């Protein structure tokens, strides 16, 4: 019988990459594969079922090192999945991220014609992710993945991206990252905000009741149950442009730091404005038991954390916004790629650097796509009209950002696009039994 917690989640059938927060520090590698031969693709699924880690091993020494495997819609077609089964998947997943680009705000420099090949093309069939706290563990995980691919001439490795934590750990704009992770009923893995109740398992794992009481499962159940959807994004960060904008709109180094914090909603140390609104508090930022333990109920107008700031947009918590916040939660994992831009440099050096983001959830439409379109690229839900996220929004030099302040709010104009999409794809991460089910397909 499958292992479960409180009789709910079948942890030994759920890939560890679905439920576990990213380790800190970390190193990671993403591999994209193309299936040229159906028989080889099915054998790959069989091998991967013995390589990917399950969420049941949360207490083992290797719990923070894992390999996960996902398939795109084109990958499921390449395996020969029957049409009636293909039709049962979320329609955003069926279309693919490139087809959804305009809706997601991937226009201009972020549009698919500028994406890094082969991202967003029909050639992307399988996504393999290897993650570990250290290089030794990552190499061991990658070796297991390589063994699964070896001697399969119908499988082609078409792309690789290596990632690693910057000192801090911080992302390229200088902010500590990886602090927010929701609690999920039955997972046995605590969330990072004790003030928020655990989310229903069906928000993240297919085949379980979600926040609306429904159960969504692609068919047949042997394939869909214990799986989830993942939205992968390669995001290039215009670090020099961000530094220049903050500097040009500030009157002192201290004001630069405050402005950057107001745009993000946290100081660069990770200390949230909600708990430290006037000055940075590195000790708070370093404390995993406190740096995400806050709500916004005592700050309805955003004098501490602006309503338009990045972290308040992507997770409004208890803010009074249009819509039901609990229906749009998702697991967000970012891993850094590329070397850091030297401290103080204000001109772009031409080096590719940014984040590989993975958004995990059972409802790509009302989770990732809703957040991207209604919260990141619109301000209607907070009464801010067309104002977009100051950090991640699809601004094109005409963006505005308002910082509530007495007696007169501070308003910034001319926000450029600081984050450019270099590619992305929707993928389905099956349960371990589903990988074996795919291996046994006879169509």
TrEMBL record:
Keywords: Iron, Metal-binding, Oxidoreductase, Peroxidase
Organism (species): Sorangium cellulosum (strain So ce56)
Keyword Transit peptide listed: no
Annotated EC: 1.11.1.7
Official protein name in the record: Peroxidase
Cofactor: heme b
Transmembrane segments: none
Recorded GO MF terms: heme binding; lactoperoxidase activity; metal ion binding
Cellular component terms per the entry's GO annotation: cytosol
InterPro entries, per the entry: Dimeric_a/b-barrel (IPR011008), Dyp_peroxidase (IPR006314)
